[in-house]
Design goal:
Largest sheet: 8 strands, mixed
Strand order of the largest sheet: 1-2-4-3-5-6-7-8
CATH class of the largest domain: Alpha Beta
CATH topology of the largest domain: Rossmann fold
Helix content: 40-55%
Number of domains: 2
Number of helices: 11
Distance between the termini: 77 Å
Structural class: alpha/beta
Number of strands: 8
Radius of gyration: 20 Å
Strand content: 15-25%
Shape: globular
Length: about 300
């Protein structure tokens, strides 16, 4: 009996430690606040994201409008908006990555404003930038927010603009979920740059890369916490689960040396898409730096894609 009691106590202690560790990692990854721990990933060694702040001065000089809405679950959401100078212009919704904010999409905003003269809407995702929210939803909860932003633009502009969704990293997975599940009727095309396809696979990779921890049973415990706290599972929240439902054309972009979100994730998404699609790989481009490393080639791909949409 004594040995059985010791065994049960040890088992309970291990369970408490595992649950506590899973809860700590879940809150670190999903809750609002700084995400400096991400840069500890060996997959981001030597990757410099300073380029994303290089056009802040340009953006500020455009005097972007501040728009606010309230999400369906009561969260205040913020976006920066650059209106077009032409009537009935299309709308580009530019969605930033994990731990970033609306301003980090300035390099893309400059293209859409100066090259294409579109309206540009750059949301702060929930739990990012000026938007509220205790937790982010890794592109699943945010899909509803994107639908609301598009509806808000229609009301404010006074017409239904043809809309392009262009997302980077987490933002790319967000726009894929928006196009597949919400399917806003004004959306005519999607550009996905460096998207993750599968949440479980992405979390498993970074659990090892950042924390040097095994996936079992921490991933399963995290999945349970996600269902309990946020109402969805890792499988449900994964773009690849729903990507076959996308009806509009999709341009998938990924860097060949992206280790943080491996390039084969976009390859897998490409295989599941049943809509008109194109996949572009850029050499020597780490995570989310395809445009920074290949600006002319990237702009040419945008030109070609928009041309196929008659924009």
């Amino acid at each position: 009996m004594d040995w059985l009691l010791v065994f049960l106590i040890a088992l309970l202690v291990i369970l408490v430690v595992l649950v506590s560790l899973s809860a700590w990692i879940f809150n670190l990854a999903f809750s609002n606040g700084r995400k400096d721990f991400v840069m500890r990933s060996k997959d981001l060694k030597g990757v410099d994201f300073k380029v994303f702040s290089s056009l802040n001065t340009w953006l500020d000089a455009q005097s972007p409008q501040d728009w606010w809405i309230t999400s369906h679950d009561g969260i205040p959401l913020h976006a920066l908006v650059l209106p077009s100078s032409r009537q009935n212009a299309p709308l580009a919704v530019l969605v930033h990555g994990y731990s970033a904010n609306a301003k980090t999409m300035a390099m893309f905003a400059k293209i859409y404003r100066e090259r294409y003269d579109m309206h540009v809407l750059m949301p702060d995702l929930r739990a990012h930038g000026q938007s509220g929210g205790r937790y982010l939803g890794f592109g699943w909860l945010e899909k509803e927010d994107m639908g609301q932003w598009i509806d808000e633009a229609i009301v404010r502009l006074g017409y239904r603009p043809q809309t392009i969704l262009h997302g980077l990293s987490l933002g790319a997975s967000t726009v894929l979920n928006t196009a597949s599940v919400i399917q806003p009727p004004s959306v005519i095309g999607v550009i996905s740059d460096s998207a993750f396809s599968d949440l479980r696979a992405q979390f498993t990779r970074q659990l090892r890369s950042i924390f040097r921890l095994p996936s079992f049973p921490l991933i399963d415990l995290g999945n349970w916490m996600c269902r309990w706290k946020l109402g969805f599972s890792y499988t449900e929240g994964s773009p690849i689960t729903h990507s076959a439902k996308i009806k509009v054309p999709v341009l998938l972009i990924h860097g060949n040396i992206d280790r943080f979100v491996p390039v084969d994730m976009s390859d897998a998404l490409f295989e599941t898409l049943t809509c008109p699609k194109k996949l572009v790989h850029y050499p020597n481009a780490p995570h989310a730096l395809n445009y920074a490393r290949h600006p002319q080639a990237y702009q040419q791909e945008l030109d070609n894609f928009l041309r196929t949409l008659n924009l």
